[in-house]
Amino acid sequence: MKISPTLNEKLATVQRVCILTGAGVSAESGVPTFRGEDGLWSKLKPEELASFEGFMKNPRNVWAWYNHRKEIMHSVEPNAAHYALATMESFYSEFTLVTQNIDNLHQRAGSKHVLELHGNIERSYCMECGKYFTDITVTEEASVPRCSCGGLVRPDVVWFGENLPEYEYKEAIRAASNCELFFSVGTSAVVYPAAWLPHVAKQHGAYLVEINMERTELSQYVDELLLGKAGEILPYVVECIKKVRS
Ligand code: BJW
Ligand code: ZN
Description:
By secondary structure, the protein is of the alpha/beta class. It has 10 helices and 9 strands. The protein has 2 domains: 157 residues, TPP-binding domain (Rossmann fold, 3-Layer(aba) Sandwich), CATH 3.40.50; 74 residues, SIR2/SIRT2 'Small Domain', CATH 3.30.1600.
């Protein structure tokens, strides 16, 4: 494994780092990704499971899917990539970790400052009164949780056609615009507006690095492409940081 002298120099000298992660960062923990041969969308329809219309048409189906995924997410552990990112945070005065994942694995690995662009599987909210829940457990199979006001409760995640949470998105744009070094890790970079962030960073002069198992839509724009598993490359990057910053 090797990084360029330029990246090594950046790791040594920069203060402001921004990271965007996607499903690939949790793949080595056993959380399925969305796209590609074995991805969720190869067997399931996003318009049925990840859209407001799909939810209103069949909330039981959508809740059953999220409960199933929650079980998987509870049964897995953070991997070397999550831990490496948590370690990286301590070396830089401004370090922003932006994730599209809803699985909590960054927080469980010890990352402190995480911006969740697509929500969190542990939270849900009432579509009538807006009340938030963090303890929704659907015990009966295929049942739909309701609020005390009678309203339908939905997972607090961002589906297609929905806006991203305002604070998180604004902060993510701010961090991407201000950083000197940006890493896009384990994301196919096809879902917008998250996929704008690396471009925003580059437009503002950041050195752009991608870590992925394969080339993506973003690869042609990056300064450095590190092809391989996030769980192998990120710990190596942290070793490099320790050598130049300790
Ligand atoms: C590894 C690895 C290892 C594997 N190591 N790497 C046409 C053009 C442009 C935009 C649009 C358009 N038509 C519609 C839109 C908008 C739409 C969009 O972008 N669609 C595109 C897909 C075309 N976006 C939206 O609708 C967003 N909202 C929005 O735009 O609001 C404005 C608006 C309002 C009203 C009307 C219209 C617009 C919202 C997007 C919400 C996405 N939601 C989901 C579900 C979230 C909840 C949940 O998890 O259930 O978010 S979909 C899914 O995709 C999930 C993910 O966060 C997101 C991104 O996926 P990610 O993370 O990149 O995963 P994969 O599987 O794609 O990639 C994994 C990568 O890892 C691969 O590259 C592997 O190679 C790699 N990998 N193992 C390193 N070990
Ligand atoms: Zn309610």
